[in-house]
Structures are given as C-alpha cells and as structure tokens.
Write a structure and sequence with these properties.
The complex is a heterodimer of chains A (227) and B (115). Chain A is an alpha/beta fold. Chain A has helices at 12-27, 43-53, 71-77, 96-102, 147-150, 152-155, 176-186, 203-226, and strands at 2-9, 33-37, 60-66, 83-87, 113-117, 134-140, 158-164, 191-194. Chain A has one domain (25-226): P-loop containing nucleotide triphosphate hydrolases (Rossmann fold, 3-Layer(aba) Sandwich). In chain A, strands 4-3-5-2-6-7-8 form a 7-stranded parallel sheet, with helices on both faces. In chain B, strand 1 (25-34), helix 2 and strand 2 (61-67) form a beta-alpha-beta unit. Classes of the chains: A alpha/beta (227), B alpha+beta (115).
C-alpha cells in the first residue's frame, strides 16, 4: 500500500476555468460581480433597477441562474441589454463551466459590466469561484439578522453585503445594527450598504459603488497596457 | 445541498491521481474539509458512499479531516479557534487577526495498492 500526498483543491477544475474567466474579464476591463442571496431577497429587482439606471450605450450584460424557468431573464431583458438565463436543471449553484459556456458569442470587448446572478442559495454558491471580482451578498430585512452567523462561509467571502428592503423595517422585527455587527463578526472587511430596491432608497450608493469598481478595473487595464 | 457534486469531483480527482500509477487500486481518499467550506462532512460521506457503491473491485474508503476555523494573531503569533465568531486575539487582545484555516476543500492524499 502506498500513500500519495496530493494537496490539491477538490474543485481544481472549477478553479482552472474560473482563473481563465477572470483573465478574460480583466483583459477587457470589465467589472464582474457575483450576486448571491437566499431566494426572494431581491437580487432580480435590484438588477432591474440597476439596468434601468444605465444609459443605453453602457456595455452591460447579465447572466442569471435559476434551477428552472427563464422568468428572471424575461424580467431583465426588458431593459435592452443582453441577458442570458442559465437553467441549472437541479443544481443549486452556478459553476465556472456554466458561465464559460454561456459567455460564448458575446463580445466581451464591448462590455463594462458583467453581472452574474447566482441561484438563490446561501450555501453552495460560496464554494464555486466564477472568476468574479466580488461576491456580493444580499440580505433582506424580512430574513433573520443572524443569517451571517448561520452562513459564515458565504458572508465571509463577500466584498459587499447589501441589506435590502429597508422600507419594510418599520413592519418587521429586524435589528439592523445587530445584522451589521453579525456581518462584521464573520467578515470585518466587507462593505455594507442599506437599500430598498422597491422604493429606490440609497440606490445611489450602490451605483456609486459599481462605478468605483468599474473605473478601478478600467484603470488596472490601462496600466496593464502601458506597462 | 451540493455534496453530490462535490463527492463526484472528489472521486474523479482521486481516480485521476490513481491513473498515474497504472494497474493500481484506489483504497482510500484523504480529504480536508474546513468548517466554513460550505460542505457538510456527513452529507458528503453519505453521497460518496452512494457514489462508490458497487464500484469494482471494492469501493474506496473516505477519510475526512475536519479543520476548524482558526485565526492567527500577527502581533503575538497566537493561533486560536474562533469561538462565537470572536476574532480578537485571546492572548494579547489585538483586534485584527488573519484566518489560517477553515475554508479548505482539499484532496490531501490517496492510498493505492500497487500491482
């Protein structure tokens, strides 16, 4: 009997594809966020609002994942930007291969933003790198404020946590101070925004965040080209 | 929820390693799973056993090393397990500490019977 030390990530094939996706995104100066939340936290409405905000000549594309139906793609397609639905047919998360496949035929050079809307789930998406710049976790105030503690794997990997549906705060027992403390416990460096996609409250902060990230990507690209 | 997919990836990765030693038989697969990896070891074991059931000549065993979430204090060097998500250093009280383990999802080793 022989023991052979391997020391490799189990998802090394996914990591390999994610790395090549990240390279393609970087070469084109695109900002690519991966939106993660439980079902019903408001990912799609937030994206609708975001698409409606962009001037029509902005290079925006969306990949949206669901287990079944293309309902979300239909909702998002109304804004005139290219949208593709990834129907996983049962899988509870997107993986890098699905993203790579769906990107076929898209002119990445023309893009400034590539939004990936993951399958509604706070567990599995955290294991799969999609080549994104940031995992953005959306937590709505109709959920429990202890969710960051219950799903530390996902919240600890977030670059930004968006607390959504703040217009409902007067009607629910959600302690927003405690929610933010809980985010900080598992992820001291994550930025936090409080918004309502329904009323539009504080969405300007979200748009400013996107713009800052996108200009960072464009700047990194120009430095890359000069050097 | 995605443990079946992970189990498949584990088995495939281990088989790939074993194929580098032609004629060998895969006896055991060593995995390292972190507390914050998003993978439940017991569910994974259940899926793995279902997956290898009936594989010839006999199914490979799975050895899981569970890795707790630990942080390291850059000031005094103390490594400590996180209790109630307290990231402050229990030794010197430093507020900023760095994660050192707990997100692993790694194939650590394979045990083979060589021909």
């Amino acid at each position: 009997m022989t023991r052979i030390e391997v020391q490799k990530k189990v998802l090394s094939e996914n990591e390999r594809i994610a790395k090549s996706l990240r390279e393609r995104v970087r070469e084109n100066g695109i900002y690519c966020p991966n939106l993660i939340s439980s079902p019903g936290a408001g990912k799609t409405l937030l994206l609708e609002r975001t698409l409606a905000m962009f001037p029509p000549d902005t290079g925006v594309a969306v990949l949206t994942g669901d287990i079944q139906t293309d309902n979300d793609a239909k909702r998002l397609a109304k804004y005139g930007f290219p949208v593709r639905q990834i129907t996983t047919g049962g899988a509870c998360h997107l993986d890098a291969r699905m993203v790579e496949k769906e990107l076929e035929g898209w002119d990445l050079e023309a893009l400034d933003y590539l939004f990936i809307e993951n399958v509604g789930n706070l567990v599995c998406p955290s294991s799969y790198d999609l080549g994104e710049h940031d995992k953005i976790v959306i937590l709505s105030v109709t959920e429990g404020e202890d969710k960051p503690l219950k799903y530390p794997g996902t919240f600890s990997r977030a670059g930004l946590v968006i607390l959504n549906k703040i217009d409902l705060l007067p009607y629910v027992q959600f302690d927003i101070t405690k929610a933010k403390e809980n985010v900080r416990k598992v992820n001291p460096s994550a930025e936090i925004l409080e918004v309502s996609a329904t009323t539009g409250a504080n969405l300007d902060d979200w748009y400013a965040w996107l713009e800052k990230k996108r200009s960072g990507c464009a700047q990194a690209l120009s430095t890359l080209i000069v050097s | 929820m995605h443990e079946m997919g992970i189990a498949t990836s584990v088995f495939e990765a281990a088989q790939k390693e074993a194929q580098r030693y032609p004629g060998s038989k895969l006896l055991k697969i060593g995995l390292r799973i972190g507390e914050w990896s998003g993978v439940d070891p017991e569910s994974l074991r259940f899926c793995f056993e279902a997956l290898v059931l009936g594989s010839e000549p006999s199914p490979a065993a799975l050895d899981i090393e569970f890795r707790p979430r630990q942080n390291r204090c850059p000031t005094c060097g103390t490594v400590f397990a996180l209790k109630d998500y307290q990231t402050d250093c229990p030794n010197c009280g430093a507020a900023v500490t760095e994660p050192v383990s707990g997100t692993e999802l790694e194939l650590a080793y394979v045990e083979l019977e060589e021909p």
